[in-house]
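Quick review question:
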């Protein structure tokens, strides 16, 4: 467990009622952060949380007032009708950036997704890992909104000098549940380590990183994440034998196994990924 800083930094956590938000509420305080919580849904066990939509500018102004940084996890987290994606992920993220900029917040750590590059063929055999600079190839309207989020972040850095680390998260759940996830899994503890690194590294400008553990079967390059000081401690490999016995190895001839985005490339996307 990392030593807490002497003075916790106050961080606004959007999406605090969600799966990842709930995990980070448990894990980030040990890294020295005091969290202010925000979500359109009530946050269980936290009556002090701000319950509001990302498009509620007055609520956003209150939320960002006095915080050192924002960890932006709120949004539609799967494929959905465009109107919903537009409202939460595109307009909502824009309004958050505007409020943060007006309040002089120095940095946002923003949940992008592997689905911003989901149509990138996964590396096979000895092929090189996918770099962060690979052309964006969204696999869904959802992935398209994450590509927008990355461009928004670049724009606020270039125009206003407000920093962002865009984290293209793989699959951050307690355990990997599919063979694909053996490659893209990020353990919750590594997620907290990565968000901590992204919140505390100096001079990030706009940096894009992949978010995953040090998986034996990793598909992408963690160099830019490690450059922030991220040192992943976990590997999905202990889960491999059981998952492969149940589901079989990935089949390169199966479309849903051939790209980074897994089943998100199918139309419609189907669970499990
Ligand atoms: P989730 O769906 O469990 O949580 C998202 C939260 O955002 C929900 O509590 C929801 O109420 C809130 N929200 C949605 N629209 C909102 C709005 N307009 N205003 C305020 N709050 C709103 O998703 P999860 O898994 O916790 O993911 C968190 C973030 O990380 C999402 O942005 C997702 O796209 C991203 N991500 C997550 C991955 C994962 O493995 N969990 C992988 C890649 C990206
Ligand atoms: C995501 O972007 C989703 O938010 C999450 O629920 C998972 O589906 C993850 O990607 C994944 O690729 O497994």
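Suggested answer, residue by residue:
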């Amino acid at each position: 467990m990392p030593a807490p800083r002497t003075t916790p930094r106050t961080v606004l956590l959007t999406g605090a009622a969600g799966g990842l938000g709930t995990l980070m509420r448990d894990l980030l305080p040990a890294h020295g952060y005091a969290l202010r919580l925000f979500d359109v849904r009530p946050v269980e066990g936290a009556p002090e949380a701000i319950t509001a939509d990302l498009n509620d500018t007055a609520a956003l102004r209150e939320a960002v007032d006095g915080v050192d940084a924002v960890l932006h996890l709120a949004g539609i987290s799967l494929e959905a009708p465009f109107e919903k994606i537009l409202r939460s992920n595109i307009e909502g993220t824009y309004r958050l950036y505007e409020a943060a900029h007006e309040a002089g917040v120095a940095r946002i750590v923003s949940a992008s997704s592997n689905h911003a590059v989901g149509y990138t063929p996964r590396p096979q055999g000895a092929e090189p890992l996918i770099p962060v600079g690979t052309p964006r190839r969204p696999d869904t309207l959802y992935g398209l909104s994450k590509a927008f989020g990355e461009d928004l972040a670049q724009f606020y850095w270039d125009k206003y000098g407000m920093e962002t680390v865009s984290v293209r998260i793989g699959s951050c759940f307690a355990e990997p549940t599919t063979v694909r996830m053996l490659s893209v899994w990020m353990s919750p503890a590594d997620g907290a380590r990565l968000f901590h690194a992204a919140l505390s590294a100096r001079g990030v400008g706009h940096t894009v990183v992949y978010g995953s553990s040090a998986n034996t079967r990793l598909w992408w390059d963690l160099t830019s994440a490690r450059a922030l000081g991220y040192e992943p401690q976990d590997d999905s490999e202990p889960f491999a034998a059981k998952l492969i016995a149940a589901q079989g190895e990935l089949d390169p001839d199966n479309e849903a196994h051939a790209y980074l985005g897994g089943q998100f490339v199918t139309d419609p996307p189907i669970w499990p990924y």
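Why it works: The longest helix spans residues 82-103. The pocket of D-galactaro-1,5-lactone (ligand 2) is lined by residues 77-78, 113-115, 171, 273 (CB under 6 Å).
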